[in-house]
C-alpha cells in the first residue's frame, strides 16, 4: 500500500498561532521558503518529511499531532449528518468533506451544530407532551450530547485532571493503597465514611458531612466512588476551571460534565498514567491482569486504555464502546479512525453484540471497515448485579480494539490469522452511510446510493444497491 501523503494545513496554522510566529518567521525556523509554507498551510502541498523533523527538533512537537485526528472525526460526523433523510437529494463527494475538515474545521463544526439544532427541533416537535407548555424555543444541543462531544474532541484525555489524579495516587502506597488514601483524604476534611445497605452507589450528605457507599457494590466500584467524591471536594477548583474553559451552553451540560470530570479523575487515580501505561505494555494489554494489578473492573481498565493520549507519551490508540442489550451505545470513544454512529446503535456484524451470549468470556474479532482499515476487536459482557435478590441486573457489553498494526502489542491477537484477508469480517458504522452493497444484515438502504428494484427476483435484500 503506498504511503499516504500528509495534508495538515489547519494544524500547521494552529501550531504557528500557538507559537505566536508570523509565516515568515515560522518558515525560517522550519527551513522552507515562505511560499512553500503558505502552500502547506492551505493544503496545496503535503507536509514534507523535512518539515515534520524540523517541528520535532526545533519545537519539540509530538509529530503525531499532525495526524488526522479531529479531521477524520469531522469527516465521519459530516457524512452521517449528510445521510439524514432531509438531505437525501444532497450529494457531497468524500473529497470535499475531507477538504472542509482539513481547511475549514470551524465551518465543519458549525454545520454539525446546525444539524444537531435541526434534530433537536425535530424531536421536540415530534413529542407532543414536550412541545406543549415549553417556553424556551431556543434550539440547542442536548446537554448530554454537548458533554459527549466535549470529551470526544478532547481525545478523551484531560491533561490537568489526569496529572492531578496521578499526583494524588503517588502517595497512596504509604497510606495503605489508593482506597485507604481516598478514605484518609475524606476523613481529613471531616467527612465520616460508612459502607451501608443503600441501593444507590454513593450518597454524600454535605450538611452532615457523611458519605455512604453501598456495601452491595463490588470493591472496585466502591473505590471508584470514593475517589469520585475526593475529586468533587479536593479538586473542585480544578474541575471548575476546566468547565470554564469548555464554555458549555447550559447549566445542565456543565453539571453533567463536572460529574464526567470527577469520573475521569477517579479512573486516572485508580490507574495512574505512567504506571498504568508501563504495566499495560508489559502485560501486552491483558485486561484481566491489569484489573487485578490495579484493583479495577474490566470496564474501568478498557475505558482507561482509551484515554492514554498524553502528548509525548501516548499509548496505543484504542476505541472503546459500551452497548446495552438493544444495541444502543451508552459510552463511546475512539482514538482510532473508527468512528461510531452519533445516533442509533452499532453495526450488527460487530462482535460486541454477541458478547451477551457468552457471559464471562472474551470474544475476539478481526474486522475491516468500508475504508479498508483493519482492526482487532475484543468484546465482553460487563453485566452488573444489584447486590441482592430482587435487585435489577444492568446488562451491558463493551468492546475495545485498535488497528491491526498494533496487534503484536496485544495478547489477544496471539494465534489469529492476521495475514489472512479472508479472516477479517466486514463491519460498518451505520447502515445509512455504509457503502457495502452485499451486507445481509442491512436494516435500511444507503442514502447516498441509487437503488434498483426488481419485482421478478429477490436476493438477500429486496433491492440492489447501485
In words, what does this structure look like?
With 466 residues, this protein is of the alpha+beta class. It has a domain at 9-67: 434 Repressor (Amino-terminal Domain) (Orthogonal Bundle), CATH 1.10.260.40. Helix content is 41%, strand content 12%. It has 17 helices and eleven strands. The strands form three sheets. It has a six-stranded mixed sheet with strand order 5-4-8-7-6-9, covered by helices on one side. A three-stranded mixed sheet has the order 1-3-2. Strands 10-11 form a two-stranded antiparallel sheet. A hairpin with a 4-residue loop joins strand 2 (202-205) and strand 3. The chain is globular and about 65 Å long.
Amino acid at each position: 500500500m503506498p504511503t499516504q501523503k500528509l495534508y495538515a494545513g489547519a494544524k500547521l496554522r494552529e501550531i504557528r498561532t500557538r507559537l505566536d510566529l508570523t509565516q515568515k518567521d515560522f518558515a525560517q525556523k522550519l527551513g522552507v521558503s515562505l511560499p512553500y509554507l503558505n502552500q502547506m498551510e492551505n493544503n496545496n502541498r503535503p507536509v514534507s518529511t523535512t518539515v515534520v523533523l524540523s517541528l520535532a527538533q526545533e519545537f519539540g512537537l509530538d509529530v503525531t499531532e499532525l495526524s488526522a485526528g479531529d479531521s477524520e472525526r469531522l469527516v465521519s460526523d459530516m457524512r452521517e449528518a449528510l445521510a439524514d433523510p432531509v438531505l437525501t437529494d444532497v450529494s457531497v463527494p468524500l473529497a470535499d468533506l475531507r477538504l472542509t475538515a482539513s481547511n475549514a474545521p470551524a465551518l465543519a463544526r458549525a454545520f454539525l451544530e446546525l444539524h444537531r439544532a435541526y434534530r433537536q427541533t425535530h424531536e421536540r416537535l415530534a413529542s407532543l407532551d414536550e412541545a406543549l407548555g415549553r417556553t424556551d424555543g431556543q434550539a440547542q444541543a442536548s446537554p448530554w450530547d454537548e458533554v459527549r462531544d466535549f470529551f470526544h474532541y478532547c481525545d478523551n484525555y484531560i491533561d490537568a485532571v489526569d496529572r492531578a489524579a496521578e499526583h494524588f495516587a503517588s502517595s497512596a502506597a504509604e497510606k495503605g493503597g489508593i482506597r485507604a488514601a481516598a478514605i484518609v483524604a475524606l476523613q481529613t476534611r471531616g467527612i465520616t465514611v460508612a459502607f451501608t445497605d443503600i441501593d444507590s452507589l454513593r450518597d454524600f450528605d454535605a450538611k452532615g458531612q457523611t458519605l455512604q457507599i453501598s456495601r452491595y457494590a463490588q470493591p472496585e466500584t466502591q473505590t471508584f466512588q470514593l475517589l469520585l467524591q475526593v475529586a468533587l471536594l479536593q479538586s473542585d477548583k480544578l474541575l471548575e476551571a476546566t468547565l470554564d474553559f469548555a464554555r458549555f451552553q447550559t447549566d445542565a451540560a456543565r453539571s453533567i460534565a463536572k460529574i464526567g470530570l470527577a469520573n475521569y479523575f477517579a479512573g486516572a487515580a485508580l490507574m495512574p498514567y505512567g504506571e498504568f501505561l508501563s504495566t499495560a505494555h508489559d502485560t501486552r494489554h491483558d485486561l484481566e491482569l491489569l484489573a487485578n494489578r490495579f484493583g479495577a473492573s474490566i470496564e474501568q481498565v478498557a475505558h482507561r486504555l482509551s484515554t492514554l493520549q498524553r502528548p509525548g507519551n501516548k499509548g496505543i490508540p484504542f476505541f472503546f464502546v459500551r452497548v446495552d442489550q438493544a444495541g444502543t451505545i451508552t459510552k463511546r470513544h475512539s482514538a482510532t479512525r473508527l468512528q461510531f454512529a452519533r445516533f442509533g446503535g452499532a453495526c450488527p456484524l460487530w462482535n460486541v453484540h454477541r458478547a451477551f451470549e457468552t457471559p464471562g468470556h472474551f470474544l475476539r474479532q478481526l474486522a475491516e471497515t468500508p475504508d479498508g482499515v483493519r482492526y482487532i476487536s475484543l468484546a465482553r459482557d460487563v453485566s452488573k448485579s444489584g447486590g441482592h435478590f430482587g435487585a435489577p441486573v444492568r446488562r451491558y457489553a463493551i468492546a475495545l480494539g485498535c488497528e491491526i498494526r498494533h496487534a503484536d502489542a496485544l495478547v489477544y491477537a496471539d494465534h489469529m490469522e492476521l495475514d489472512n484477508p479472508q479472516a477479517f469480517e466486514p463491519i460498518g458504522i451505520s447502515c445509512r452511510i455504509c457503502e457495502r452493497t452485499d451486507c445481509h444484515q442491512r436494516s435500511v438502504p444507503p442514502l447516498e446510493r441509487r437503488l434498483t428494484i426488481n419485482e421478478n427476483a429477490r436476493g438477500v435484500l429486496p433491492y440492489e444497491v447501485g
